[in-house]
Amino acid sequence: MNESLEIVGPEGVPLRFPAASLPERASAFFFDLFVIGCGIGALVLLLIGAAGFGVGFPLVLIGFFVLRHFYFALFELLWRGATPGKRLLRIRVISRDGLGLRPEAVFARNLVRDVELFVPLVVLSAPEQVMGPAPGWLRLLMGLWVLVMAFMPVLTREGTRVGDLVGGTRVVRVPAADLVADAADRSSTAPAAFTEAQLAHYGEKELETLADLLRRFEERRAELSDLYVVSTTIARKIGYAGDQPAQDPPRFLRSFYQHQRAALERQLLFGTRKASKLDGARRG
Amino acid sequence: MSDAGARGAAPRSVAFRREREALWFELDALVDKALRRGLGSLDAEALHRLPVLYRSTLASLSVARRTALDQALVRYLEALCARAYLAIYGSQRSVRGAVREALLVTFPRMVRALRVEVALSVAITTAGAVIAWMLMDVEPGWYDAFVDPGLASGRDPHATTEALREPLYGGGEGALATFASFLFVHNAGIGIMCFALGFAAGIPTALLLFTNGLMLGAFLQLYASRGLLFELVGWLLPHGIPEIGAVVLCGAAGLHVGRALIDPGRHTHADALLRAGRRASMVVVGCVVLFAIAGVVEGVFRQVVTDDGLRYALALFNGLWFFGWLLLGGRRRGAT
Q1: Is the pLDDT of residue B5 over 50?
Q2: Residue B94 burial by CB count (10 A; 0-12/13-18/19+): exposed, middle or buried?
Q3: Interface of B with A in 70-89 (CB under 8 A)
Q4: DSSP at A116
């Protein structure tokens, strides 16, 4: 469901962002609408209350206009691609071309919001306001077209809305960066020794599965019995003699993980990548 | 080394991580702060460190992707670099500089880039005006078909010449500021609509421009038939230059987008739409400023100054800066 988006930054290194999901974007949008509503309410109370109707009303009109058309654009410019709603949901707008977010892109994606939201509403409720005295068939055609625009996020594969297509932007989630301890980074007091042949059975996929199991064991989300099953299975498969796999599964597995990863990484340096145990080592 | 044996067994990526971890954590802390409170919250030294740390972490990421088999490590670096990218490149240099550049350089340049659409937009409006004028010459009753009675507010063919002259010089009764801001909001809304409707292949945009032209022509003919053309133009031009100009430009922006949809040229549709949308939206943003200026002139100046000579002088002045801005703005600094 949630695919990632790859962009190439100015340094030439591809970066991967998790794309923001439709519900996330919708929630952010409704939160922003709520903020706009509150802003208008506050404007009306403050300005008319403080300055009286004569001076207050025109300011309210202008404030309303600015909020309706430029709320999103100004926040996205000032807050590096985030409006209050987006910030709350930890999503941001980025430019697809990998360069910085330009004002053109921000204005384009937000001016188009009008076609996607307000124009469909007007077309549905009072079509003559938009099209004037147009013949019925033209109205029907226009109405259909505008509705298609409005439902683009549901129609396109990536869930982009028209504004994102026009602005050349995407909404992404700000990834959380959390570095966990490395299961291979511990000095084992009695390191088990493995031969080259014993380390030739498994590939990267199994290695990652094992790392995951060890991590879960550290966090007490896996039982010792799980480790016992895995460690005896590995020992049988690689033909490991000795009682450590049965006696002390965690230590055996850590040691095996360390050696297996070292062996695979050594091969990787020579350009040989072994993706899984089914994979005959191939040049990569 | 005492633990040479253990080190020899350890994967290379362990040493790789040990050597660089400190740099990553330093970057992590800076990026965290920048994402929460903006780049401005970092001090000079941190700002100096940030790009250095970012590039070395990017290098770490490239190496880790190719050589490290610890997925947790690669995932961490992916996420850290993505966060750092957002903190560094998501950022606008300075808002005031961006606004100045957008209005003084990008806006006039984009208008000139859209000259074909601007010409078309002018042609459609003029066609509307000419047709309305000619039809009204034959039968003044057409007026009601062209001008919304709400907007006309009694200024129609049944009114006496005196009643038509009166609003031109009737000093502003009551709240000028309200009037000005209402005009601004109303007109700018129409302008943005003109652009937005470009996404329906530009057809509604053309219709809007045409009806706008019809209204203009009908007004002009009505006043001309009573010998008040000179007075009407003096009343209309000071705010009409920025306002009608902005409507025409917004229409051109809408037509530009519509054209990209119909005829993307050498690009794909998505690509053409992207280019057209970015150009057109900057035109619309500039037009919002034009509408604001027009609103002030229309709501305040027009009501207060009733001398024809002064009105024409202001019209001349407005015409000078308007065309100067669009034709000369942003020419100095090299071409885009």
Answers
A1: no
A2: exposed
A3: 70-73, 76, 78-83, 85-87, 89
A4: I
B50 contact partners, CB below 8 Å, separation of at least 6: B27, B30, B31, B34, B42, B84, B87, B88
Q: How far apart are CA B119 and CA A75, in angstroms?
A: 35
Tell me which long-range contacts A30-33 makes (C-beta under 8 A, separation of at least 24).
A30/A85, A31/A84, A31/A85, A31/A88, A31/A89, A32/A71, A32/A72, A32/A83, A32/A84, A32/A85, A32/A86
Which among A242-246, B94-98, B169-173 has the top mean pLDDT?
A242-246
pLDDT of B302 strictly over 90: no
User: In which element (H, E) is residue A283 found?
Assistant: strand A282-283
Cα dihedral A202, A205, A206, A211, rounded to 10, equals: 130
Token pair of A39 as six digits? 């802003």
At a CB cut-off of 8 Å and minimum separation 6, what does B44 contact? none
Average pLDDT over residues B211-223: 86
- Provide the chain B residues 241-260 that lie in CB contact (below 8 A) with chain A: 257
Helix (H) or strand (E) holding B326: helix B308-328
Domains of chain A, by residue range, sit at 4-173, 197-283
Structure tokens at B75: 């995932």
- Residue window 17-46, chain B: list those with CB within 8 Å of chain A: 17-18, 21, 24-25, 28, 35, 38
Please say whether the dihedral angle defined by the alpha carbons of residues B288, B291, B297 and B303, taken in this order, is positive or negative: negative
| CA distances for B134 relative to A223, B13, B215, B236, angstroms | 91, 83, 13, 20
Query: With 90 as the cut, is the pLDDT of residue B80 above it?
Result: yes
pLDDT score at A85: 92
Identify the pLDDT of residue B55: 92
Q: What is the Cα–Cα distance from B72 to A219, expressed in whole angstroms?
A: 15
List Cα–Cα distances, A72 to A69, A146, B268, B324, in angstroms: 8, 21, 28, 31
- In one letter, which amino acid is A143? G
The residue type at B204:
P
Question: What is the ipTM score, two decimals?
Answer: 0.81
What whole-number distance in Å separates Cα of residue A69 and Cα of residue B170? 33
d(CA A267, CA A274): 9
Give the span between the Cα atoms of B67 and B16, in whole angstroms.
10
* Closest by Cα among B302, B237, B299 to B229: B237
H helices of chain A, in order, are 22-43, 49-78, 84-88, 103-111, 113, 119-125, 128-131, 136-150, 152-155, 162-167, 204-218, 224-238, 244-247, 249-269
Q: Residue B17 — φ and ψ, nearest 5°?
A: -70, -45
Collect all residues of chain B within an 8 Å Cβ-Cβ radius of residue A16. 78, 82
d(CA B29, CA B38): 13
**Contact indicator for A280, A267 with CB cutoff of 8 Å:** no
